[in-house]
Amino acid sequence: MNDKNTIEPWRDEWLGELLRELDAPEHRPEFHGELRRRLREEQHAARSRSVTRWSLRLAAVAGAAAVVVAVVGLPGTGKSPSLSGPQAAGAAVVKAHVRAALASLHGLSGVLVAKGPSENDGGRWRFALDASGDLWLQGPRSGDVETYDASAGVVRSAQHSASLGGGTLFYAERSGVAPGPPDQGPPTWVLPAQYGAFVRAALADTPSAVESTTFGGRPAWRLEVRTTPNAIVPGLSGDHLSITVDRASGMPVRVVERKDGRVLRELRIENLEVDPRLPAATFALDFPVGAEVMRSDDGFRRTELGRVEATVGYRPLVPSWIPGGYRLAEVAVAREAAPTGKEGGNPPSRMVVSLAYRRGIDQFLVTTRVRGDGSWSDPMAGPEGYVDTPAQVTLTGGALTGTEADVVVSTQSSPHVWALGDDLVVTVDGDLDRTELVRVANSLAAR
Q1: Contact 189, 107 (CB under 8 A)
Q2: Which of 50, 308, 359, 430 sits a CA distance of 20 to 30 A from 34?
């Protein structure tokens, strides 16, 4: 692979992760001369390497160790990214490896197993998903199935009702589904939802240690991450996460949350298959002839960006900057939608615009809704009993210049930034780090 435009975004992501982890001293006077010399040496060495294998070297002159990242099978080659060699990897390298794996996947399947403090916190789900957003879930009981058609915004399900003894299957179709949070979106393969939040919190700028291990007989890494328990209900959230990453695929395959050394919950993926061949019928669910189907409508309609203003009465806020590799995948609007926030405590949502950007199975969303009257709290707030501690920033670009915003990266919600504009409530959430979240928010402009 010799496409410079394809390689450079991934090189920058690796570099960013490494710089976030590097604890370098102040530069000595000879630093820049030494750096230029090393860069020249690196350029000469690079000419003799294969174009499908590249390395990136950072050297801290004042006694800091050199960090070398060797990557085989970059995105676009049809191979899962992997790190070669028996040497131990640093936490920054593993985090970058996970980011690249999630961003380059075109599909995924496996079995998610959950264990928690109570019986209701556990179960097994078989899942399959693709980069278009389509999803198939089976479980936790035999016969329970959910599917999601992303292009149509339709969820179909066949599930047992525990309140009625669990012996009867009930069929439902939910149309007009939002692409994702803070509105009620489709079901997700990261059941329970904490799996994704755990992984994203670990990938953020959180100090981490890494150890070599195995999982399912395969080489793996284990990230050890210290977290802060919730101040209101500390017994329900942990102070430590152990995240096991499959070395070959770069996928997080096990998450263990602990408090004072005691395991609170465990989530793991078994029978992992990366980029499987998934027939279109995988994501279809046909109801039996004559079955009674409960139908509902969440109010969102897929549309084109140029037609949004005619529906909601304002020009949508669209980012002028997005991280490399992302593309606008879905545009959905709703004249009315369910309230957001903790226990749905925010004012009614009116004239909502949801823009979904995807890169592999990664996704982030930009959502706006009319502010109207009433008091607003975080539309993405975690479950009742949890209190997030947001970082407050002042946005410095685009339509929200000068607006105060909250940035939240926690184990209880998707990483997000939200702000109250003069007329709109704005959220940016998804598979981004803090810097990317704020940069997207700073670039929002009416179009």
Answers
A1: no
A2: 50
How does DSSP classify residue 216?
T
User: Whose CA is closest to 215, among 149, 266, 291?
Assistant: 266
What end-to-end distance do the CA atoms of the chain give, in Å? Answer: 36
Say how far apart CA 237 and CA 254 lie, in whole Å.
17
Question: What are the phi and psi torsion angles at 337 (to 5°)?
Answer: -145, 165
Amino acid of residue 148: Y
Provide the mean pLDDT of the chain.
76
Per-residue pLDDT reduced to its tens digit, 236-248: 677 788 888 888 8
**Cα–Cα distance for residue pair 358/323, rounded to 1 Å:** 10
Closest CA to 24 of 67, 53, 59, 60: 60
- Confidence (pLDDT) at 235: 58
Out of 3.40.50.300, 3.30.200.100, 3.90.280.10, 3.10.20.340, select the CATH number for domain 299-446.
Answer: 3.30.200.100
Encoded tokens for 245: 């990453």
Tokens 């980029």 belong to residue: 275
| The CATH number, out of the four listed (3.40.50.1370, 2.50.20.10, 2.60.40.10, 3.90.1150.10), of the domain defined by the range 107-274 | 2.50.20.10
Domain ranges across the chain: 4-79, 107-274, 299-446
CA dist., res. 144 & res. 139, Å (int): 5
Q: Which of 59-68, 239-248, 253-262 has the lowest mean pLDDT?
A: 59-68
Which pair of structure tokens corresponds to residue 438?
Answer: 């704020």
Highest mean pLDDT among 272-281, 326-335, 381-390, 410-419: 326-335
Residue 54: φ, ψ to 5°: -140, 160
In this predicted structure, which of 17-26, 203-212, 265-274, 304-313 has the lowest mean pLDDT?
Answer: 17-26
Per residue in 270-285, pLDDT tens? 888 888 888 878 898 9
- Would you state the pLDDT for residue 2? 40
Contact 195, 112 (CB under 8 A): yes
Task: Read off the tokens for 375.
Answer: 């008091």
Please give the structure tokens belonging to residue 377.
Answer: 């709290």
Which pTM value belongs to this model?
Answer: 0.71
Residue 441's nearest CA partner among 401, 413, 411, 408 is 401
